[in-house]
Amino acid sequence: MKHLFFLNKYFYKYKWWIIPGVFFVIISNIFGVVPAQVVGHAFNLITENIAIYQLFDGFERQEIIYNIFSNSLFFFGALILILYLMRGLFLFFMRQTIILMSRHIEYDMKNEIYAHYQKLSLGFYRRNNTGDLMNRATEDVNRVRMYVGPAIMYTINTAVLFLLIIYFMFDVNSTLAIYCLLPLPILVVTIYFVNTLINQKSERIQEQLSRLSSFVQERFSGIRVIKSYVREKQVQDVFASESIAYKNSSMNLVKVQALFYPTMLLLVGLSTILTVYIGGKQVIDGAITPGNIAEFIVYVNQLTFPVTMLGWVTTLIQRAAASQKRINEFLQLQPDITSSNAEEPVFDGKISFKNVSFTYPDTGIEALREVSFEVEKGQFVAIIGRTGSGKSTLANLIMRMYDTDAGQIEIDGKELKNLNLNNFRNQIGFVPQEVFLFSDTIKNNIAFGLSAIEEGQVEQAAKNAAVYDNIVDFDLKFETMLGERGITLSGGQKQRVSIARALIKEPKILIFDDCLSAVDTKTEEEILSNLGKIMKGKTSILIAHRISTIKNADKIIVLDDGKIIEQGTHNELLANNGAYAEMYDNQLLEEENR
Ligand SMILES: Nc1ncnc2c1ncn2[C@@H]1O[C@H](COP(=O)(O)OP(=O)(O)OP(=O)(O)O)[C@@H](O)[C@H]1O
Known about the structure:
Strand content: 5-15%
Mean pLDDT: 88
Domain ABC transporter: 351-586
Protein name: ABC transporter ATP-binding protein
Bound molecules: adenosine-5'-triphosphate
Transmembrane segments: 21-44, 64-86, 151-170, 176-198, 258-278, 298-317
Distance between the termini: 69 Å
CATH superfamily of the largest domain: P-loop containing nucleotide triphosphate hydrolases
Shape: elongated
Number of strands: 10
Number of domains: 3
Keywords: ATP-binding, Cell membrane, Membrane, Nucleotide-binding, Transmembrane, Transmembrane helix, Transport
CATH architecture of the largest domain: 3-Layer(aba) Sandwich
Strand order of the largest sheet: 6-7-8-3-9-10
Organism: Pedobacter frigiditerrae
């Protein structure tokens, strides 16, 4: 329950919704309870008037008595109608305030969670799967909304109604009141247990459903593999067995649900029988009028629904508390990477690594060991090495996706940890190894890093990334949609769109993480020659596997098992006759054998 205290700040924020809301609940309940008394009076009127009417049988006055009697009845009928209309009106206001407030809170919470997620560092996204992150921001928020809206509304409603009815019941006759209310606690407890059972079963069904949907989603994404290995039948069988588990659980739930209403009606029926029986005895004793019995029956029926709701509300609150606990777990996480510096300098692009070591916290893999090197302003530096040697890790550290364990990274002589991170990242153009394009137009994908696009900027970036000719071949050119709703680009085209996205920013530091692997050597040369022009005077770091890509670099750093084993220019490294020279010979041999 304590987790729900987190929501108090929202109740405070929306106090001008909840206070009138409570007021409307009270008024609507007063209008809901008074008709029972009118029914009681009407009932008494009927019994008394019938007796008088019969007394005047055969007299002229009988007609007059009939008229008075029917007019009074009409008056009572109209009064009940007006009272219920007023109740309806205030119920409308109650929902318009409390339920609307819950929607506002839901909106605020989703935004708060989303904004917080974005602040958390890359490591957080590695540790938690996307499905879990999404569930907490959607399904869990929805459950919390059921608490801040319906649960609170029904609790206040039931409490107010209960107090009013109990007051009126005891005002009429306390013995009858006690007997009428006797079955209600049993109703609350029974409904609570049935509801808990229903919830447990629903939860299991929900889990099965999400397993089924992820299964379907994954298999459809991998449909090419399934078709080429002719595994449709096997996949279908797995799907059928998953579905049958879902079907059985659902049928199980229906059985419990079928118990719900009969149980409720049975207990309400019991209350009504008690009212009539005990009430009848009280009428014989002269303690109450027959109209009071009618009044009590209306009260009992009015209490049924709110009391049923109590059982439901209890489970709503329990579920909301569990959901809020999950939400809080992430909301209370502090980002590993923070920066408080507000300065916004323009960087020259000098980078120094001083004895930098880094171990991935989640796997314990030591990816970099005492790495030291310097990149001067405007230099073109290449990083090469076997797979898993730590090249991408090095790029991630330059962008401060992670903080180093030991040693330090300096940009223009200032420690990276002390820089304004957003300002720094804004001046970097990064092309990741695994291209990621959004389901959007090519134009928006290229201009992703810009707030405003100038005329011709996107086209120029596409030309620089040597992808312009491919794009203008599409019918919709730069407006072509990518992703699930649009076309699929080839691997090389994707890489080049991703390069254009980095180039359009005109970055001070450009980092290419092995992003030329899917382009042919001719296109690669074109891109590199364009880079030479665009990045003149600016720093470029190029991670690559092919020596042909990097042999013109000002400096080549050779990594092996997280350590720098050689660094220098192409010619210097060849003269060294070390690992680089060996790599070069091997690649030459491969080319000759092709
Ligand atoms: N996010 C991560 N969490 C844990 N370990 C990681 C992570 N990323 C990389 N590693 C590990 O760190 C080591 C270095 O990986 P890195 O991606 O830097 O190599 P690389 O030289 O870029 O390889 P490749 O040429 O194949 O891209 C590898 O052993 C890898 O398994």
